[in-house]
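Worked example (supplementary).
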Amino acid sequence: MDTKPVNSVIQERLTLLRKRMHEKGVDYYMIPTADFHNSEYVSDYFKVREYFSNFTGSNGTLLVWQEGAGLWTDGRYFIQAERELSGTGITLFRMQTEGVPDIGAFLAEQMADGQTLGFDGRVISASEGRRYEKKMESANKQIRFAYGEDLADVIWENRPTFPAGRVWVVPDELAGASVAEKLSGVRAKLSENGAESLFLTKLDDLMWLFNIRGCDVECNPVAMCYGYITQNEAVIFIQKRVLEEHVVSYFENNGIRVEEYEEVTSYLEAIIPGQKILLDLRHCSYGFAKLLADKHTIIEKQNPTELLKAVKNATELSNMRKIYLKDSVAVTKFIYWLKTSMKKLADGEIVDGMQTITELSAAAKLEEFRRGIPEFLDLSFPTIAGYGANAAMMHYEATEESHAVLKPEGFLLVDSGGQYLGGTTDVTRTIALGPVTEEQKLHYTKVAQGMLQMTHAKWLYGCTGRNLDILARKPLWEIGLDYRCGTGHGVGYILNVHEGPQSLRWRYVEGVGEAVLEAGMDVTNEPGVYIEGSHGIRTENVMVVCNLEKNEYGQFMGFETLTWVPLDMEAIDEKYLSEDAKKMLTVYQQQVFEKISPYLTEEEKQWLKEETNA
Amino acid sequence: MDTKPVNSVIQERLTLLRKRMHEKGVDYYMIPTADFHNSEYVSDYFKVREYFSNFTGSNGTLLVWQEGAGLWTDGRYFIQAERELSGTGITLFRMQTEGVPDIGAFLAEQMADGQTLGFDGRVISASEGRRYEKKMESANKQIRFAYGEDLADVIWENRPTFPAGRVWVVPDELAGASVAEKLSGVRAKLSENGAESLFLTKLDDLMWLFNIRGCDVECNPVAMCYGYITQNEAVIFIQKRVLEEHVVSYFENNGIRVEEYEEVTSYLEAIIPGQKILLDLRHCSYGFAKLLADKHTIIEKQNPTELLKAVKNATELSNMRKIYLKDSVAVTKFIYWLKTSMKKLADGEIVDGMQTITELSAAAKLEEFRRGIPEFLDLSFPTIAGYGANAAMMHYEATEESHAVLKPEGFLLVDSGGQYLGGTTDVTRTIALGPVTEEQKLHYTKVAQGMLQMTHAKWLYGCTGRNLDILARKPLWEIGLDYRCGTGHGVGYILNVHEGPQSLRWRYVEGVGEAVLEAGMDVTNEPGVYIEGSHGIRTENVMVVCNLEKNEYGQFMGFETLTWVPLDMEAIDEKYLSEDAKKMLTVYQQQVFEKISPYLTEEEKQWLKEETNA
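After joint prediction of all chains, the assembly is encoded as:
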């Protein structure tokens, strides 16, 4: 007997959806987690899957049919999904678990010839849609794809409004390159690829290209828009009502034609047939790709903006160095405050009016330090502050309903960052709040060694992140541990905290391209250890790829560090460090002191001096 | 004024070829270095390019047209090619040099619509031929490909005979798996890939599959043959006249149908149309691929034999351990002989009747030690013995006409191996014959450190050689050096010294697949330093991939070393070694002593004890 209470709200919504599916002749309806631009994070308007399933994780796809419903999500969310789906009647499909079919295999197995698979063609990427097509083909199933309508829209009462925040212009002195220069770079790439035009749908690429920013996704300073670029013309499709007059003038002065966001479909339909259009199928929606492929030749390539954006220009780098220093000062001050406060609380004192510090109040305090920086705009992602075993969950987010109170022992892991006029930061430190166990010291020390070894990487031009990843991972693999995720990702410039194509990761995926590390690319360096039920450790700096010497063997490359926050000597036991790593640690800590101490109070400075042996 | 003497022999041959090209309506004729099986090394019969160009290197393509001729070769052979082409009128095209077009680009540039490109369709692989087709397509050139005839054959007087050496059967107790087991493994892979049959053209894969060996290519124990495998049948196309009766019986007893080598074409032509045939386009000739594609569905995949062959079975591994030990003893005895002989010669003594030792006599002495091993069959490749600056040429081969006399100073690099009943070996040691410079010590020590670091690699299952390569290369990159080639390659079992798909290398090549390192794969570990005009250093061991612990993070992997030859302590300065590397060195040297010393004379043992600090 199932004793779980029924979630009647969700069940009623699903009933309405099934009714509508029946009316429309749709047998299976798929609801992913995406907006019209296949963004990594989406605004509330796009949380359709959450509305129909109660599952709030950042990754998951709901599939509904007359007799049932299933939700596919990944390992980060198994426990949460089980809880949130309880009573909804929705079956949880644990992705990448033995014996669990992926959604394509499930559909190919379940669906019968002549049936219809429905989805909103605007929220499934062209490459994903094509994977489903291929799956059906190789299973020899004749399936109709109905992707012209969002069946959820009329059902969803009080749907949040479509995001339409303020748009602002990044001045050239902050951007380092004018929109004209950027357009000419993109046009050169179009010619190289034999394309006449580019239909650009990826929001951060659009922001970069047009030197604008918005606020339509939490922590991601992007505005909902599309772009269509030819050799002679550049059109932006954007909600005109949100544009202030000076933004309209800016577009005008730069020869950018502004069209209404909603008009993009009719614009694309009206393009004279026979164009060669470059399209990035990972980001363009299935619906638009189908529309364009109908009358044009599609050149399937990565958006040329991606690589251009990834390589930061001299102005961007110079601003980033300054902003990262200020951000590092804020984080260092926070660490000092936290460590001393924990001692005060242990002694029965009150700190900032609080008798305890929680994961939430710690995060709030850190935000307060960041807000003190004049260039601060916003956080670059919701702060992850995980105490003890909570930190073992890589994407933990404390909530008002559920969060831990800090104790004067063990680790607090804090992964955080800011959006500034001058860059986007991302930094993680794991802070000993008091005594830590021998095992925790071992893990902390090995993580630090991995981070430092990656910092000192030197390689010949031509390497990708797959060549270097082992430098950070080696100390952990040697003791039989791993962190089950990449070592690092690219970081935007006053943009999304995750960007590509550069990354540091090791897994080989057949057919997936890799990005050669180019001077000017920034990348995080964040090895970790996550022991379920016990503790989580991560140490994360941001670095920039730079040129070293060039000789007959080629161009040697290395990293320049941007993040200057001390490592926690209370958690390091040098007996676990190699001789080389000891030297690297000393050098890093001393550099931190030199760079940070001028911006600290006397007490903070004194503490940092001891912490860094400077 | 060109004062170089004219090479009239070559010029006359080219004149005859041009005449024949004219008769056949061929405008450009291409002669690569390959046999009908796209083997890495070829027998004399196939040295057509050498006959028409005088260039003897192992890699190069000759292109002939009415007004000229060009030879494309890689960096290893620039100096040699310049010398050998002198007076032939052939232009040298230095591959991968700035401003030098590759042969495809050159053809696409030079050839006019309606012209004909000719080549022997049996000696160009399908994938190479397809690259030329694509090149012409993207250059919008209408070019005819004439690949049905070997225009050189009637011109070449006294052409060496087609190779047809003795064929022998590898007994199951040496092979570790019967031909029936191997065929069933291949058939399972065919089903997996949706193929009904396999046309197998790669000689070492054929030897492995049928448990036979030949001697049709120097040092490569292969016999010229083809195979056609279906779910019910296995056919070998081989020169019947070379088969001794017991070999014929062996095939018969194992249900393998034997057809004449020359009949393969008519056999393929007669296959009932509409088959799904798996074909490895890298190894199948352009001609056969065209023939089959005409009437069948080609499933383009790697030969399934390649991966099956690469993972050595328990019997193979057990035999290899024994043979590598014996081979290591031979090399160690040689090093002792060489070092003591150099001292004796310096003291005016005569050694083995010689007043000097040369690169050639040193190689001969090493071969003598190997021939003393009962299981010895042949060398696995012509020994590279390079003294001083000669060793800076990675593929140096001393000849009777040109070789160095050894002096009691500097390095002799010796890269050598044997074919044994029980395995194929490949080992390099660089031996100090007397004093070496400080720079040479630095380089030798860093190479040793790289080799040792790779030996101790530990990783999670899923890594390919591209993940690990940096472990060996790091000490050299750190001081601004590189060795411009991969770190390691797979090694056959009583087969070719180079085999795939496994390798240790770092360069990312878009679209080129990588092989995950599987337990049982063997791979060389051979970092080096090559300073033109000065010295060359390489240290090479062979290792086998093995499983270490398995836990919640996955299967950890490591290497087992097969080669036990001491490193030269006279060339190592420990001040250049990290603490970790010092320990690794001590461990390796002591293991060498433990394993090798029981097979040495008292004097050798005493020397080895000192050399290894054992």
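Two points are worth noting when inspecting this output. The two ends of chain B are 65 Å apart (CA to CA). Chain B has a mean pLDDT of 96.
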